[in-house]
Every structure is written in C-alpha cells, then in structure tokens.
Specification:
The complex is a heterodimer of chains A (256) and B (640). Chain A is of the alpha+beta class and 256 residues long. Chain A has two domains: 3-110, Ubiquitin-like (UB roll) (Roll), CATH 3.10.20.30; 116-251, Alpha-helical ferredoxin (Fumarate Reductase Iron-sulfur Protein, Chain B, domain 2, Orthogonal Bundle), CATH 1.10.1060.10. Chain A is built from eight helices and seven strands; from the N terminus they run ββαβββββααααααα. In chain A, strand 1 (3-9) and strand 2 (18-24) form a beta hairpin. In chain A, helix 5 packs antiparallel against helix 6 (194-207). In chain A, 54% of the residues are buried. With 640 residues, chain B is α+β, with helices and mostly antiparallel strands. The mean pLDDT of chain B is 96. Chain B is built from 17 helices and 19 strands. Among the domains of chain B are: 267-403, Succinate dehydrogenase/fumarate reductase flavoprotein, catalytic domain (Flavocytochrome C3, Chain A, domain 1); 490-605, Up-down Bundle (Methane Monooxygenase Hydroxylase, Chain G, domain 1). Chain B starts with 14 loop residues before the first helix and ends in a 14-residue tail after the last strand. Chain B has helices at 15-22, 43-55, 93-103, 110-130, 162-179, 245-252, 305-308, 319-323, 333-345, 362-368, 370-388, 443-463, 476-495, 501-516, 522-542, 554-578, 602-605, and strands spanning 35-39, 58-62, 80-81, 155-156, 183-186, 189-197, 200-208, 214-218, 221-224, 257-258, 263-269, 292-296, 316-317, 357-360, 397-406, 409-410, 423-425, 607-612, 621-626. The chains are: A alpha+beta (256), B alpha+beta (640). Chains A and B meet through helix 1, helix 2 and helix 3 of A and helix 2, helix 4, helix 5, helix 11 and helix 12 of B. The structure holds flavin-adenine dinucleotide, iron/sulfur cluster and FE2/S2 (inorganic) cluster (FES). Flavin-adenine dinucleotide is lined by residues 39-45, 62-65, 71-73, 75-80, 162-163, 190-191, 225-228, 237-238, 242-243, 245-246, 282, 404-405, 427-429, 441-444, 447 of chain B.
C-alpha cells in the first residue's frame, strides 16, 4: 500500500523542530511500524537525506525503548508498543503523523529520540529493596499469598516507556511511579522501607518537572502493559501515609 | 601461549569453596581505592556492578541504551534454572551439573559447570529478597516448571517475563548503588576499545552516542558484560542493538575468542515475512509440549495456514514424531531446528516463502478444550496473532528456526578473566559454561551467577596483587587508543559509497545463515569465507553513512558494529571449518551417523578452540584447551 508520513524532525535538543512529509509506495501490511521506518530511512539515505533518528531495541514489546506518538496517541491506535504495531492497522492512502514523546521532563535529543533519564533518577531515589548480595534468607522462607504476588507482578510489568507521561495533558508520571511503589508496597520484602520510598520517589518525580495527576485516566488508556490506575490510588495512600502517619495499609485485595 | 584454565584441584564439589578460601582478599578499607569499569548492564553487568559497589569498589558502568533497564536480558521469557529441589522430584546440584554438561554435548568444563549449579540456589534467594515477583503456588511458596525437556521441575519463572523481572531486580540493586554514589552510570555510551598498559587492561575508550564525544576512562580492572553476538546473522531473536563490538575490540587487544562457531538456533520462531524483516520473534518452546509439528507429505507451493486445516491426516508428515518416536515434538532445540530445515530444503516447507513448518494445536484443543490451551499459552497465542494476523486457535501456527544465543565468546579462566590480565568477561559475552549447546533457562542463571556470586570473589584476588595508584588517561596508551578510534570513525564516514549499512549487514547475515547456520560443510564454509572477505572489502569501500561524528548518528553506530560482525563472521567460519565433528548446535555434514544424526568425535575434538588475533588480514592462531572429564562418562545423544 501507499502511505504518507508526517514526521517531526529536529536536529538536536537546541534546534527548532518541524514536520516533514514523506511518501512510501510499497508498504507491506506485514511490516511492523518500525520496519516501515527502516524502509523510509533506507529511502532517505539513498537520496542523501539524513535518516530519522528513533529509539528502539528489542522490537518485542518489552524493553520500553520505542516511543513514537502516532496520530496523536503514544504508541499509536492500539494499546501496544510502537514496535508491536503493524501496518495492517492502517489503510492504503493513509497519512500518519509521527512525533516524539512531549513532556518537559523528556527533552528531545534528536527527531523522535527523547531523554528519559528522569525515570531512572526516580528509580534511583528509592525504587529498590535495600539488600546486599548474599546473606539473604532462603527464598521459600518468605511465603507470599498468590493473590498478592500476582498483583505485585501486574504492577511490576511496567516497561518504563513513558507513554503514560506522553498521554497525560499534565505530563504526570504518577502511573509509572505508582506501579513501582505498588510492587514493593504489596510485597513483604518492600514493607520496611515503604514510607521513605514513597516520599523519596514522589519528591524526585516533582523535582524532575512531571505534572500533577488530575485523574483523567489517559495514562491507563495508553499504557501498553495495562498498568491500572489503582496503582495511583495506592501511591497516594502510601504517600499520604508516609507524610502524615505511619500506618499499615491492607494489601491483599484486588480491585482497589 | 599457555592456556591455564585455573580449575582448582580436588573433588568436584569442593573446588569452588576451596578456591574461594584460597583467593586473596582486599581489605575493606582499601576497596574504595580501586576503580572497576563494568561495560554492559544486562543481568551479568548490573548484578556485577551492584555487588562490587556494595563491597566498596568504585564502579563506572556503561550501556548503549538510554537506561540499564533496557538491556537485551529484558526479553528472556521462559525462566531461570536453579537446583533448589523445592519440588522434591529428585533434583540436586549434581543433577543440574550433569544435565548441563550432557546438554552441552561434553564441550564445557566440569569445574565451571558444577560451580554454576552450586550458586544457582543463591540466585533465587537473592532475587526474591530484592522483590522479584516469581510465580507462586496458592500456598504462597514458589512455583516451578519443567523446561526444555528436563526431567525435573527446576525452572523458576515470572509468567512469560522472567528476564524482565530479573533484570529489573538487578537494575534496582544497581540504582541503589548509583544513589549511594558507588556506581557512576553512563547511559547511551558505547565502548569502542580496551586500553592495555604494561600488559594489563587499564581502561576503555567510549563514544557518547548523543554528542559523539570520544573519551578515555581508566580503572584497575575492566569487566565486559556485553552480551552475545547472534546478530552476526542479521536476523535473530536478539535485540537490534546487540553486538560483538566490545568483545571483538578486546579480542584484537589480545583476548582469545573461545568456540566462536557455537551458536544456538531456536526451533520455534515466527518465520520471515518479507525483505523488510528486521528481527525475529521467539515463541516459547513450551509450545512444543502441546503443538504438533508437521508439513505436507508432498510439496504444496505457498500453502497457507488457513488451507492447512483441509489437508487430511493421511497427507500430513509429523516428521519429528516419525523420526524420533520416543521424544517426538520434544527433541532438543538443535534436532528440531535441523529437521525443520531438512523438510524445507526438500521443498515441503509451507507459507509464502516455503521457509516454515506448521505447529498445530488442533489435537490439543480437541483433547483438553480451548480454555485449557488458553490458560497455558494465551499470551503467546495473542502475540502470534498480533504479529502475523493469524488466529492459532483456528489455524496452525507457522514456525521456523532462528538464531537465538551464542555459546561462544571471550575465553575466560575459572576466575572469569580473559587472556588479558585485568580484563574479565561475564554473561553471554564469555564462552564458559554451556559447551556446544545451552539448556533452556540456563543463560539467565549463568549471567547472574557470574555477576552476583563469582566476580565479587575472584576480582579481589587480582586487585589485592596490584597497587591502588590511579592511572592518568594522559598516558600515551590512552591517547593512542583515542586517536585510533577517531580515525576509524572518520574513515567510515568518508567512504560515502552506494550501500546502506543494513544492506551490507543483511548480506553478511544471509551468508552466515546459509553456510554457517544449522548445517555446515567444508565446501560451504570455504564459500562463506570467500564471500565474507569480499564483503569486508566492499564495506570499507562502498558503505554510505550520512551525517557526522559529532552528533547522535544511528547509522554510524550500526556501521561500527557491522564492521566488527564481518570480521567475527570470518572467525566463526574458520572455527566451524576446524571443528570437523558434529556437537551440540554445530552440525558438520561430514560427521554424521548412517541415519543422519550428529556424530561427535571425542578423541579428536574434546577441546575448547581458543583463537588468537594475529594482526589485520592474518590468519588467527588456534590454541586448544583440552577438556578433562573426571566425573561424567561421555555418551552420544540419542532421541530415537
Ligand atoms: C528472545 C530471547 C529469549 C530468551 N529467553 C531465555 C530464557 O527464558 N531463559 C534463559 O536462561 N535465557 C534466555 N535467553 C538468553 C538470555 O536472555 C541472554 O543470554 C542473557 O540475558 C544475556 O545477558 P547478558 O547480561 O550477558 O547480556 P545482555 O542482557 O545482552 O546485556 C548486554 C549489555 O551490554 C551493553 N553493551 C553491549 N555492547 C556494548 C558496548 N560496546 N558499549 C557499551 N555497552 C555495551 C548493553 O547496553 C547491555 O547493557 C533468551 C534470549 C532471547 C534472545
Ligand atoms: S506505566 Fe505503562 S505507559 Fe507508563 S511507563 Fe509503565 S508501561 Fe509505559
Ligand atoms: S523496541 Fe522494545 S518495546 Fe518496542
């Protein structure tokens, strides 16, 4: 099929960017969206034009590196990652607009590549259990109800892609932070440090310039891993608990 | 050169504990005086960097992605082995050791493999303490499954995302050390050379992938944890960025390369759909527990999955069940892969390319009901549907083998040190523990064993013997290495030829796959050698890389990696030529039994082939490390 793509081009973080339009004449419906970009880049190189820079690595939907806003939606029309989107989702003759993640905390480095190290710094501020290598108890000495383990797992599947931030009109990172805080808040291993963890991660999130959550749920709708908004509620409770009191939150249940 | 594996003497199960006791220690107060560079922050690198930081060393860690959390380890699906014997089904350290040695077709060291099995149990404890959410039973204890045809259930898993959860665990430990100031992390930074001073590895040269800045970093020791080189085949299940550059640069600086031709080809991947194909997606091999592999008895050109359902049973050839009645569809990876290739070579392959076989669940669905199959494989079926557009509940899947893992890598001794003192290799980047074939769920185990439980001990022994005085990067050796890197980058950019990097990479991949893939012969390998040499000439005269060195330039990144892959490809071919036996993933057509099965030649080839770089366009020199088996009896594999 024939496709027109309007792509955001920006030489570097200082440069002013703008859209450029390209034509592709032989797009196979079996191509992934990124393979369509490979073909486009090969076409550009042959014409002596600078190929479009974009982030990707696993192309399996798990590393979280790919990051394109496609027709106004992070990762495009399906609730999946950009690399798992296939051209059969589009129609012959379509015009597709492609932009980078937009958020103050994610500055554009070049074209569609943005700097997401703010996410790393949030994790560094408290996204861990303070154990050293060695000297830990036998794994089965910490029994965890399956229901709790499953719920912690659901939160832990976040791939750190940043689509939640890109989807949010406030560029809030609450879903990402909520997922990590929830994983540890649910598990017994994470309990000893839950108070400091929530405080520190939220403080870092604010320092990085992410916006506030106003409950629009746009993040949940775009998250390729189906991270639930309940994680934000849990983060709020953990945080309030951290700020005002030291208390125990009930953890077993789903649906909260 | 004397290849000393440094395997300690004494009984197998005492080697590691005795060795640990005999290793020199660095006084706790002195650890902070030593700097260690860790290149790569996948499972091996992140676990090593975190553990060394905890001990007090100053660590600098590097990765080329925008975050350590995105290393290729993240993509591992199936699970991680450990000899916990939680299931009370007869597993033990010795059994895991034995299975690994046998699975590797007797081309790995007994001492290393036993140590791996010993520390496997600590890995699970460590990961659980970090909050890794492994699968659990209703009673709250950890769940296990049997993986890759193992007779015991020793595989721990986290749904189909085990690698992700383990890596995020190691990443969290790494983050803690970053925030403690013990690890300095360099994202989007690629190592382009090792610096050797007075015969010891003392630093690296890197390129900042955003600004293009070339920099030198000095340290007392350098750890390469840079993953495998499956992308030499262009198409593989590896992440797009996975590469051999760090290992290859080290090789050119004196580190021997062990068993480069040992690659693993995984039988159940989604087939190539066209020329645009950029990578291959693995479907978990657990699918073979219920799926039946078949092709039509007589060739039908372009047979679609939708039309396959109309082919009567009598016209189908369930070739694995036919040839291997006792193992059937559960034969090991290499056997399943090779047989798929044979039927496709006969013209009986299916799909538009003819390079695919069916994996059919209709009998299982009839037998167990759709809900049972959905519970077991639902996410895999969804993934398949998303990628191919076909619904595997209604039509058979199509699969084809794909390159998945490289057992070869930098040669290391028992301490994980390469032949360059102070230069270590961990994880998939080394050649160590899997012999000629890796068992499912053992790569994650090895990466974490190396990083959490081996290097923290063995590196101390080396550092204790050297002065903590820091080395300046103003030294001539660093300056010269920087100049070399800059010149190489400049040279590539000047060529401005007619072919894109991907085009040349694809050509290399086709040659490797055709002649150095599932089945290898002397004449084919000689053809490949010639083609690769021509490709090298073409690359250096006809590649087209736009842009400059001082900016984010992804074509330039790829070009550097492909240039190294081309050189590695030639060495793989040399190694495959030398090894005139069939073992593990390496099948030499000249070495088979009368009924077409792999024939190993222990009297001639029970050694590690370690290759020494001898200079530009010079043949490499082969060194042999003989493998001694004191505990297991060598047998030929049979799955009939
Ligand atoms: C699809 C798939 C599924 C798998 N499933 C399983 C499984 O179920 N069980 C199992 O045991 N194994 C599995 N494996 C194998 C296993 O995932 C890998 O062997 C293992 O994760 C490798 O870990 P590593 O730490 O050695 O390297 P990697 O995770 O590949 O990390 C390499 C690191 O090195 C860095 N790097 C590389 N080159 C440079 C350079 N020049 N400069 C700077 N940094 C560099 C990268 O940025 C990265 O951080 C699977 C593999 C694949 C492809
Ligand atoms: S919460 Fe979802 S959208 Fe946000 S980073 Fe994680 S996976 Fe991506
Ligand atoms: S490239 Fe890894 S998630 Fe898309």
């Amino acid at each position: 099929m024939k496709i027109t793509v309007k792509v955001w081009r920006q030489a570097n973080s200082q440069a002013k960017g703008g859209f450029k339009t390209y034509q592709l004449d032989h797009v196979s419906t079996d191509m992934s969206f990124l393979e369509m970009f490979d073909v486009l880049n090969a076409q550009l190189i042959r014409k002596g034009e600078d190929p479009i820079a974009f982030d990707h690595d696993c192309r399996e939907g798990i590393c979280g590196m790919c990051s394109m806003v496609i027709n106004g939606r992070p990762h495009g029309p399906l609730q999946t990652t950009t690399c798992q989107l296939h051209m059969r989702t589009f129609k012959d003759g379509d015009t597709i607009t492609v932009e980078p993640w937009r958020a103050n905390a994610f500055p554009v480095l070049k074209d569609l590549v943005v700097d997401r190290t703010a996410f790393d710094r949030i994790q560094q501020s408290g996204g861990y259990v303070s154990v050293n290598t060695g000297g830990v108890p036998d794994a089965n000495e910490i029994p965890i109800p399956k229901k709790v383990a499953d719920e912690a797992f659901d939160a832990a599947t976040c791939i750190g892609c940043g689509a939640c931030v890109a989807a949010c009109k406030n560029a809030s990172a609450m879903l990402f932070v909520g997922a990590k805080v929830s994983q540890y808040a649910l598990l017994p291993q994470g309990k000893p440090e839950r108070k400091e963890r929530a405080e520190r991660m939220v403080a870092q999130m604010d320092a990085e310039g992410f916006g506030a959550c106003t409950n629009t749920r746009a993040c949940e709708a775009e998250c390729p891993k189906g991270i639930k908004i309940t994680n934000i509620a849990r983060l709020n409770r953990e945080y309030l608990g951290a700020v005002f009191t030291s208390y125990e939150v009930e953890t077993g249940g789903g649906g909260e | 050169m004397n290849l000393d594996s440094k395997i300690p003497a004494g009984p197998l199960n005492e080697k590691w504990s005795k060795h640990k006791f005999n290793l020199k220690l660095v006084n706790p107060a002195n650890k902070r005086k030593y700097d260690v560079i860790v290149v790569g922050t996948g499972l091996a690198g992140a676990s090593a960097a975190a553990s060394l930081g905890e001990l007090g060393y100053n660590v600098k860690a590097f990765c080329f992605q925008d975050s350590p959390r995105r290393a290729h380890s993240i993509a591992a699906q199936g699970g991680i082995n450990a000899a916990k014997n939680y299931q009370n089904d007869g597993d033990s350290i010795y059994r895991l050791f034995y299975d690994t040695i046998k699975g590797g077709d007797y081309r790995a060291r007994e001492g290393n493999v036993h140590r791996l099995a010993e520390v496997s149990v600590n890995i699970i404890d460590q990961c659980v303490a970090q909050g890794v959410p492994f699968a659990r039973e209703y009673g709250g204890l950890l769940s296990n499954r049997s993986f890759g045809g193992a007779q015991v259930s020793r595989t721990f898993y986290a749904r189909g995302q085990t690698g992700q959860q383990l890596l995020l665990g190691a990443y969290s430990a790494l983050n803690r050390q970053i925030s403690n100031g013990k690890v300095k992390m360099y994202n989007r930074t690629e190592m382009l050379d090792v610096v050797v001073v007075d015969g010891k590895a003392r630093g690296i040269i890197t390129r900042d992938l955003v600004t293009g800045k070339i920099e030198a970093h000095a340290a007392h020791a350098v750890l390469l944890c840079t993953g495998g080189y499956g992308n030499v085949f262009y198409l593989s299940t590896n992440a797009k960025g996975s590469n051999v550059t760090a290992a290859w640069r080290a090789h050119k600086k004196g580190a021997l390369f062990g068993n480069p031709c040992f690659t693993q080809i995984h039988p159940t991947c989604i087939p190539v759909s066209g020329d645009h194909q950029s990578k291959l997606t693995l479907m978990s091999e657990s699918l073979r527990n219920d799926g039946r592999v078949w092709v039509p008895k007589t060739a039908i050109k372009g047979l679609k999955a939708a039309d396959a359902v109309r082919i009567p049973e009598t016209d189908r050839d369930y070739f694995l069940e036919r040839r291997y009645p006792s193992f059937g569809n559960l034969v090991p990876r290499d056997v399943a892969s090779r047989n798929a290739k044979y039927v496709c070579d006969e013209g009986r392959g299916v799909g538009t390319t003819g390079l695919a076989v069916f994996l059919d669940f209709s009998d299982a669905i009839k037998r167990d009901g759709r809900h049972v199959i959905e519970a077991k494989y639902g996410n895999l079926f969804d993934m398949y549907r998303q990628i191919t557009g076909d619904n595997p509940y209604e039509v058979p899947m199509m699969i084809y083998p794909a390159v998945h893992y490289t057992m070869g890598g930098l040669w290391v001794d028992y301490n994980l040190m390469t032949t360059v003192p102070g230069l270590y290799a961990l994880g998939e980047a080394n050649f160590s523990d899997h012999g000629a074939n890796r068992l499912g769920a053992s790569a994650l185990m090895q990466g974490l064993a190396d990083g959490y439980f081996i290097i923290p001990y063995t590196i101390g022994d080396y550092l204790a013997g050297m002065s903590w005085e820091k080395m300046s990067t103003d030294r001539a050796e660093f300056k010269e290495a920087i100049t070399n890197v800059q010149q190489r980058v400049g040279k590539m950019l000047q060529i401005k030829g007619a072919k894109t990097v991907d085009q040349l990479h694809r050509e290399l991949g086709l040659t490797m796959w055709e002649y150095c893939g599932m089945s290898r012969s002397e004449s084919g390998l000689l053809t490949a050698k010639k083609k690769i040499q021509e490709l090298k000439t073409e690359f250096w005269s006809n590649v087209n890389i736009l842009g400059s060195a001082n900016e984010l330039n992804q074509e330039l990144e790829k070009a550097g990696r492909v240039a190294d892959f081309i050189e590695l490809g030639e060495l793989m071919v040399d190694d495959a030529l030398n090894r005139s036996e069939s073992c593990g993933g390496h099948f030499r057509e000249e070495s088979q039994t009368p009924d077409g099965e792999a024939l190993r030649k222990d009297d001639q080839y029970a050694y590690v082939a370690a290759w020494e770089y001898k200079g530009e366009n010079q043949p490499e020199e082969l060194h042999k490390e003989n493998l001694v088996f004191e505990n297991v009896k060598l047998t030929q594999r049979s799955y009939k």
